[in-house]
Write a structure and sequence with these properties.
Distance between the termini: 74 Å
Strand content: 15-25%
Largest sheet: 10 strands, mixed
């Protein structure tokens, strides 16, 4: 083996997993899977048949072989057993991605987009994975910690394997061993693991173990492993040192890792069986304290409406809320909301009732929301642009008796116009509102059962959110905010009440302006907005629009939330608005924990490193990371994020079983916590890294979507025989092209067109699949699950119709070429932009490109009303002719 081969090996890692025996079937799955990721182009399967007694040895040799620039997949099999061996460069494919690939090839979970936006897998200088949270700028700074592990060689090896498995979330771990340990064999029965691979010799494994006759010495001047345990056995214990390099492992993680090995070994020795909890009681308490941020100093008290009333008394003539046509002072807002509250009382609404609000975005919407709260009721926002069937379900599920606004007909529910409610309350005083323990609002989120679920959030949670942030962000009367998001999206809770509870001025952005980055950017400049809240997807479009403008913005604070942030994409913003002038904060949060949970200020260092940190818990909130059994994990170990503290909601409306499952009493400290379903890890400084989801939920353009809800609607409401729903990218490596693909088995007499029509009437725009592909039957794995790797490529609408209509004129040809480029597929005149995978972000991309090419200017609203290529070409032609 040459030195180049050795270097190649050091930069690679491997995964071994049980596999179906038939090579031809597995080869087909491998080829189909490879088509989903550009990183896998050219991957193919090498079947390798060996005798039964040689499978394990051949597997080990294949896993240690170097690989070129791609991914090598080998099927090692015999008459009785088969293993799939995958080898890849760490820089090309993260360990999690490697496991997802293996699962997809063997017919498991969906592959999904890879890598996550803005978060390429980082490796240490030695090629070790990022589990140690090392700082590459500190590479070469070597340290050691004392360790004392109970038991013999097998106990030490098992404890190290269990600990490394905890940190890497892998049942296959790589431990470099010297001969003294390698001779003891693999202690599967005592490790608590189904399988782990032991790499002899110590070359570039994640953890090394060296047993010697004693003495103190550094194993190597430049340790080959991220972390090495070195020492000797005596008196029934392994005593020695944990050596590590800060370039690979931080001191805090090395300390936690060492204590975890000691703790697991103690459990194995005392219990003579499976390891129990990850941490001692003392360490568990310390980790929980690390993830908790205490609230200090006095804060706001009372209900939302009471705090707003106090602002109105102190600054009655300050502008509270405005839209394109209307402006209301705090006095006017309070007076109108008081009339609404009294009018609801006349209609029969009482404290604790749920009242629907279905109004377009404007000052009237804010008046109605505040009026419902003043009446002692809770508001249930109904987005008027959602399908009537969804509005009907939410209204009926919430049990509302009244809806303020003009919703579609809702049987058994009284709809009353806002002006009529105010007229009923003219000259009357509303009843006393109640306490801050009352529910303030119920916002519905996507549900895996096929129906959205309502989250009950009390007044005290919203007031606590402002107490946690107003001082840190210096929020006050000089600020101008925007209400950019739908009232049915919990980001609006932060925008509306964050502004009004701190005495700011709220600018309500219309539905169409929120979809036109250029128009929205002009509004920000015109109204001198200082506090801006955006999903990262929307912020990307705003940055592009801002690059075309000559004037600057007054924005001093940008709050990003709702989905992962591509930090590198924020660089153009900082080039124009330095971090010393405009603070950009990435906030992780969930509807069930009152919008926000953590906050991470983004600066040049975060942009350069592509940090995945979402920051520390807000004051009054807490975060911890748990395993599947709910046990607290040590610092640096990934698992499910649990959230506690002031933001935890009451639960789900009318769903006691689901509430009990997700909102739990922590057996450690008795605190009520929410199991988020998000993956993360706690850093030594208390900051949280967000690592994605643990379930079948996705976030697209800020919206939380349960793929199972879409599947359930297809099967139960639309009536297809069977369905599978996945997420893919229309254009590789372009997060803006993320789309939902549905695969359906149609009953006799049905066609895809009927399915399209039915789905659009049941699901909101952001949940409607971009493609619906008819298949004769669902492909299944040997265990009976849907074989997602065997699904065909999604069929776009034009492909399904088999059209071939060209457009000969230059303007039409330019439009078709632009649409084809943005949608990454050939477009014809009869094609509908949204049926080909288009979305609001791609609409913005088309319009911005048209403006840069000096083509006729088209508004977002005009685009939506002319969404087929032919209609759009005709529109652009008319506009170009001055029509």
């Amino acid at each position: 083996m040459t030195s180049a081969d050795v270097d190649d090996m050091r930069e690679c890692h491997s995964l071994v997993t049980p596999a179906p025996v038939r090579p031809d079937e597995l080869a087909g799955r491998t080829a189909r899977t490879a088509g989903r990721w550009r990183a896998l182009e050219g991957v193919r399967l090498w079947p390798c048949e060996v005798p039964d007694d040689a499978v394990a040895d051949r597997t080990r040799r294949e896993a240690s072989r170097p690989v070129g620039d791609g991914v090598r997949v080998v099927l090692v099999h015999s008459a009785k057993q088969a293993r799939l061996v995958l080898v890849a460069r760490r820089s090309a494919l993260s360990e999690r991605a490697l496991r997802l690939l293996a699962s997809a090839v063997t017919g498991g979970e969906p592959l999904g987009p890879e890598p996550e936006p803005g978060s390429p897998p980082r490796t240490t200088s030695g090629g070790a994975p990022e589990w140690g949270l090392g700082d590459r700028t500190r590479a070469g700074r070597q340290h050691r910690l004392p360790v004392s592990v109970a038991g013999d060689e097998k106990t030490l090896l098992a404890a190290a394997a269990v600990t490394l498995s905890t940190y890497t979330e892998s049942s296959t771990v790589h431990i470099g061993l010297n001969d003294a340990v390698h001779r003891v064999g693999v202690p599967d029965s005592r490790s608590g693991l189904a399988d782990f691979d032991v790499t002899p010799g110590g070359d570039r494994a994640d953890v090394g173990i060296i047993v010697s006759g004693g003495g103190e010495y550094l194993p190597r001047l430049a340790p080959p492993n991220a972390l090495t345990l070195h020492g000797a056995f005596g008196g029934g214990r392994f005593t020695g040192w944990c050596h590590f390099d800060e370039g690979a492992v931080t001191p805090a993680v090395a300390e936690a890792f060492s204590r975890h090995v000691e703790h697991v070994a103690d459990q194995l020795v005392s219990a003579q069986g499976e390891p129990g909890g990850h941490l001692s009681a003392e360490a568990e308490t310390a980790v929980l304290a690390l993830g908790r941020t205490p609230l200090t100093g006095p804060g706001l008290t009372g209900r939302i409406d009471q705090v707003v009333a106090a602002v109105a008394r102190s600054a009655p003539d300050a502008v509270a809320v405005s839209d394109e046509k209307t402006e209301l002072t705090y006095r006017q807002l309070d007076e109108r909301a008081t009339r609404v509250a009294a009018g609801l009382g006349v209609l029969g609404a009482r404290r604790g009732d749920l009242v629907g609000v279905c109004l377009d975005r404007g000052t009237d919407l804010v008046v109605a929301l505040l009026g419902v709260l003043k009446a002692g009721c809770a508001y249930v926002p109904l987005e008027p642009h959602n399908p009537p069937e969804r509005l009907r379900f939410i209204a009926e599920d919430a049990g509302v008796r009244w809806v303020v606004g003009t919703p579609p007909p809702l049987p058994g529910i009284t709809a009353v116009a806002l002006r009529d409610v105010e007229a009923h309350g003219e000259g009357r005083d509303p009843e006393a509102a109640g306490s801050d323990e009352d529910t303030a609002y119920v916002i519905y989120t996507s549900g895996s059962t096929g129906r959205p679920k309502g989250v009950l959030v009390p007044h005290r949670n919203v007031v606590a959110l402002m107490n946690a942030t107003r001082g840190e962000f210096a929020l006050g009367a000089r600020d101008t905010w925007t209400m950019f998001h739908s009232s049915a999206f919990d980001f609006s809770v932060w925008e509306v009440w964050g502004c009004l509870l701190t005495g700011g001025s709220l600018v309500v952005v219309s539905y169409w302006a929120a979809r036109d980055a250029e128009a929205f950017r002009a509004l920000l400049a015109r109204r001198k907005v200082t506090v801006l809240s955006q999903t990262p997807s929307a912020f990307t479009q705003l940055i592009r629009a801002d690059q075309e403008a000559d004037d600057g913005l007054a924005v001093r604070l940008v709050v990003l939330g709702g989905e992962p942030v591509d930090l590198r994409g924020t660089a153009p913003w900082f080039a124009r608005y330095p971090h010393t002038r405009c603070r950009v904060v990435n906030m992780f949060g969930i509807t069930e924990t009152t919008v926000h949970v953590t906050a991470q200020t983004i600066g040049p260092a975060e942009v350069v490193t592509g940090s995945r940190s979402v920051g520390r818990a807000l004051p009054g909130w807490s975060v911890s990371v748990r395993d599947q059994a709910g046990q607290v994990l040590p610092v640096g170990a990934p698992g499910e994020i649990w959230v506690g503290g002031a933001g935890v909601a009451e639960g789900y409306l009318g769903r006691p079983e689901l509430t009990a499952e997700r909102f739990v009493t922590d057996p450690v400290d008795g605190e009520r916590r929410y199991r988020s379903g998000d993956r993360g890890r706690l850093r030594p400084d208390g900051r949280l890294d967000h690592l994605g989801r643990v379930d079948n939920q996705v976030k697209i353009r800020g919206y939380r979507i349960e793929l199972d809800e879409i599947r359930s609607v297809l099967v139960n409401d639309v009536g297809v025989a069977a369905a599978v729903v996945t997420v893919g990218l229309g254009t590789p490596d372009d997060p803006a092209s993320a789309r939902i693909d549905a695969f359906v088995v149609l009953p006799g007499g049905r066609d895809v067109g009927e399915v399209w029509s039915a789905v659009r009437g049941l699901l909101p725009e952001y949940m409607v699949p971009s493609t619906i592909t008819a298949i004769p039957a669902l492909p299944l794995t040997p265990n009976g699950k849907a074989d997602l790797a065997a699904l065909p490529e999604p069929v776009l609408a034009s492909q399904a119709r088999g059209e071939d209509t060209a457009c000969g004129d230059d303007l039409g040809g330019n439009v078709l070429a632009l649409w084809s480029d943005v949608l990454n597929t050939e477009v014809k005149r009869e094609d509908n932009f949204f049926e080909l995978g288009g979305n609001s972000l791609l609409v913005e991309r088309v319009l911005i490109t048209m403006r840069s090419r000096r083509m006729p200017r088209v508004s977002v609203r005009e685009f939506y009303l002319n969404s087929t290529a032919g209609q759009f070409i005709d529109l652009v032609t008319r506009l170009g002719a001055g029509g």
